[in-house]
Amino acid sequence: MAIFQINRRQGYKFLFSGLLFGFCMARIVALSMRIVWATHPGDIRVAISSQIFTAAGVILLFVTNLVFTQRIVRAYHPFFGWHAAVGVFFKVLFASIVAVLVTVITVTVQSFFTLDGATRAADRDVQLFCGTFFASMAFLPIPLVLLALAIPRRTRIDKFGQGHFRTKFALLFFTVTLLSAGAIFRCVTAYMSRPVTDPAWFQSKACYYCFNFGIEVIVVYTYALSRFDRRFHVPDGSSAPGHYSSSEYGASRSAISVAAAAAVAASAGADAGAGATEGMGRSIADLEKRVSLFTNGKRTSGWSDKSKRHSKSGGSSKSVKIVYADSPSDSDSATREADMEWMAKAMRELYGESEDE
């Protein structure tokens, strides 16, 4: 919570720091309930509360890793990752996690208040299904990230956060592996029921605390010490390809990159001969609509005004100049030129334009 508050005062919003604080509070409540349960073993309400908080807390870590996986997929394949179908896929995953969590809480509570054999058997089947589902959700980020790495990229990586991407991969794979081990252990032991009077080794207290709370402590400390709030941060309002990397030059960088595509297309049209000036006006007018895909309608006033004046005057396309109103220094010109070339190519691929169009 201290990291979240410090970042918030600096205008740096990363909600997952607060989410992990909520997870830690849930774990404190769960362990407190277990202590109370040990002193009052006949209190059913305390037993129910203990099991619910124990099962529900780790879901926050599963969701965190899935969100980080989504960001990596969008960074490696911007146009595919930001496609509506991919967004719906992840939303369905998150909604299903919530639905399954509500289901397992319901059947757990019901199993404590019924003596009917058929009902208890049905509750156990549902609990086994929920445990299997959560184990699969804990492991899912690994195949998704490996698939994103295996598919050839058509564009440059839309980088986000601080640090190398290999560090992000190592951090994500490490935490996912630990959480998957805990979830699979809980799932397998749930299928292997034993009598209370003859418990197996995997039903000992050491295994219970190591594969539940011990793994979660390691994951939380790994995230905190590695400053995951810096490594996995993306700019606020990111909603389209190019938004992740726009944090380096501010919100106008994506619009400027798109404007570079207009300069390339307009220059080619001017060299084509008759009708070049009129064609360039149409290109700029059409481009202003495209910019909204990258800036949500928040175009920089310098670029927008310059485009309108140029369109009205009908000047030569070769006089189009891209002005970086918020660029830090001239030393970044090489990087900006590379970014503009990449975005110009990406825009041509997105809208099906050829090189000589």
Automatic annotation (TrEMBL):
Keyword hit for Ribosomal protein: no
Top-level division of the source organism's lineage: Eukaryota
This protein's UniProt keywords: Membrane, Transmembrane, Transmembrane helix
Cited Pfam families: DUF3112
Annotated stretches, region: Disordered: 298-337
tRNA-binding recorded as keyword: no
Transmembrane segments: 12-36, 48-68, 80-106, 126-149, 169-194, 206-225
Signal peptide: none
PANTHER family for the chain: INTEGRAL MEMBRANE PROTEIN, YALI0C10208P
Protein name (database record): Uncharacterized protein
Lineage of source species: Eukaryota, Fungi, Dikarya, Ascomycota, Pezizomycotina
